[in-house]
Design goal:
The protein is an all-alpha fold. The chain has six helices and no strands. α2 runs parallel beside α5, α4 runs antiparallel to α5 and α4 runs antiparallel to α6.
Amino acid sequence: RAASQECVSLTLSQLLKNTRPDTMSCIQTARWLREQLPIRFARRIEDILQLPHVAVVNPQINSILSTYLETFEVIHSSPPIESHDDEKAFLRIVQDQLVKHHPGTRLLAEGYREVRR
């Protein structure tokens, strides 16, 4: 399972500092993200599924879970990154998924408020 795989600890700042603007560096970073993002999403999915049932079935929290599941599947099933065109296609995938995660904090706050009632 993806959640049990090793997850490399790296901050966004470190990632950006170590990524040069040349094509090969961008490809290597995209490959690293393609490998590491599914692990991180799988762990968050497991975290959510460990919550009490009343929290998981809450519409807001369930919406977050659905978004995480979709992102995991989309990134995990993305094709290998071998060229600059592959890297650009992967970037579009990540950008599309990022937009879907934008309301996550608000949904989590709303879901928490509802579950506490």
